[in-house]
């Protein structure tokens, strides 16, 4: 019976994460890039500066930086470390180029979905900000039924993608490297998670503001050390990545490219999964930000894709490709596990390499647990009401306790499928509200300090 269910879910997952979804997501990235006048440039030049600029007089629950780091906490996860390695193993080194391009163009979609999340956000009678694809669909397009579907998919996906798989990854790395019992890891992570998430968005944002910069800088420094060790292979690696992104062939160190279709498929899929642009998750956090107008926070939120994919994933990819080229004994074609490739790369740093990788996986995974807890709360509250939030938090913590000691293959597949299904309602909102996005962009892009005086509707809990 279980095998039959697993086969059905696997088949569904293959469909929802297949070519139609990849084309829809990447196509939306390209479309919104042109509709917004290549907003990527503004995102990098102005969004990064705005992300560390406080605006306490604006309406919202947390700072712009707090909203960004909460979103980054959920976005930067084990996919940035292990996922890139898997893409290279299955799609060849050319997949790295497609991961990077997905991030570059995905900035526009992250900008667009965050803009409408802020524009159509609401406020509860106790002062909490609520927003995301569900409110954009309900208030912007009068499609509450589709907003409910998004919220249902997101709420249930949070238990798997956001909690179970992440805690299991933490338990695995702690047991493998430090021989800490899996059950003990589950209990500790559950306690730490409960302490934070029962404090709401302000507590989550407060932790993420400190954890995210630390974990990202720590991991990137490790990548820089490895690239310095492999410095004479950086230029050749870039050439191999670009060449094998479009043509089949072989390169030094067991690197094999299967051509544009395989590189595109696994590169784009891993990039989309990593940066979550188009899935509608990050805008839920963006809606809670203190911001003067929707464009201001949209620019800040879009920098999340820049950091996640254009920087972190790209560096991981370059580290892996240079390592394989430097060490011909590593045959990437025979190692389908991205985690093994990444471990071999960081193993080049004596003593500290495995420690950096281990701490990176732990901090990335735990931050994802916190970020997705908030996403799940907002989704569950939308379709079931405030009264179920205590139950949701208790279930979320319970999942963290049991995750290290149960088989998660089926849980992962179901959650991954639900995660992909979140994208469909969200992309409907982005595409059908593209005229609103363009109009708001023209209105505020050259005067980001302008205040949007449109009253935020107050709803009853």
UniProtKB/TrEMBL annotation:
The family database entries (InterPro entries) matched by this protein are listed as: Na/Ala_symport
Bilayer topology annotation? Multi-pass membrane protein
Question: Matching Pfam families, A to Z?
Answer: Na_Ala_symp
Tell me the domain of life: Bacteria
Keywords, comma-separated and alphabetical:
Cell membrane, Membrane, Symport, Transmembrane, Transmembrane helix, Transport
Give TM segment ranges: 16-34, 145-171, 183-204, 211-233, 245-264, 306-325, 345-369, 390-414, 420-438
Task: Name where it's found.
Answer: Cell membrane
As for family, the record states: Belongs to the alanine or glycine:cation symporter (AGCS) (TC 2.A.25) family.
NCBIfam families, A to Z: agcS
> What is this protein's name?
Sodium:alanine symporter family protein
Q: Which organism is it from?
A: Dorea hominis
């Amino acid at each position: 019976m279980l095998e039959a269910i697993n086969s059905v879910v696997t088949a569904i997952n293959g469909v929802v994460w297949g070519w139609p979804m990849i084309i829809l997501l990447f196509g939306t990235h390209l479309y919104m890039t042109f509709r917004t006048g290549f907003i990527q440039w503004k995102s990098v030049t102005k969004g990064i500066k705005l992300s560390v600029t406080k605006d306490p007089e604006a309406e919202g629950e947390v700072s712009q930086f707090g909203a960004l780091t909460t979103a980054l906490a959920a976005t930067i996860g084990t996919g940035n470390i292990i996922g890139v390695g898997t893409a290279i193993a299955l799609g060849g080194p050319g997949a790295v180029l497609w991961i990077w391009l997905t991030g570059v163009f995905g900035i526009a979609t992250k900008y667009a979905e965050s803009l409408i999340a802020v524009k159509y956000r609401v406020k509860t009678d106790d002062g909490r900000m609520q927003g995301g694809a569900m409110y954009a669909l309900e208030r912007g397009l009068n499609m509450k039924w589709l907003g409910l579907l998004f919220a249902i998919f997101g709420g249930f996906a949070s238990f798997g993608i956001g909690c179970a798989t992440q805690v299991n990854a933490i338990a695995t790395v702690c047991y493998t490297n430090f021989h800490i019992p899996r059950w003990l890891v589950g209990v500790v992570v559950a306690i730490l998670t409960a302490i934070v998430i029962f404090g709401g968005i302000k507590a989550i944002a407060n932790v993420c503001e400190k954890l995210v910069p630390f974990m990202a800088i720590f991991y990137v420094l490790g990548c820089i050390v490895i690239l310095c060790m492999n410095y004479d292979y950086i230029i050749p690696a870039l050439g191999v990545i670009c060449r094998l992104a479009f043509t089949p062939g072989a390169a030094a160190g067991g690197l094999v490219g299967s051509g544009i279709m395989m590189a595109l498929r696994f590169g784009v899929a891993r990039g989309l999964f990593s940066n979550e642009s188009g899935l509608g998750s990050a805008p839920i956090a963006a809606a809670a930000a203190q911001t003067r107008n929707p464009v201001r926070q949209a620019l800040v939120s879009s920098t999340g894709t820049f950091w996640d994919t254009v920087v972190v994933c790209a560096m991981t990819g370059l580290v892996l490709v240079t390592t394989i080229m430097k060490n011909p004994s590593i045959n990437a074609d025979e190692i389908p596990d991205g985690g093994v490739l990444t471990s071999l790369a960081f193993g080049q740093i004596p003593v500290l390499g495995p420690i950096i990788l281990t701490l990176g996986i732990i901090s990335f995974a735990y931050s994802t647990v916190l970020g997705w807890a908030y996403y799940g709360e907002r989704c569950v509250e939308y379709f079931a009401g405030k009264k179920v939030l205590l139950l949701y938090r208790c279930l979320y913590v319970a999942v963290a306790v049991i995750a290290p000691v149960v088989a998660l293959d089926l849980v992962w597949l179901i959650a991954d499928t639900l995660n992909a299904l979140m994208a469909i309602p969200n992309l409907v909102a982005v595409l059908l509200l593209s005229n609103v996005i363009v109009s708001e962009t023209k209105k505020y892009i050259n005067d980001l300090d302008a205040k949007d005086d449109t009253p935020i509707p107050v709803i009853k809990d």
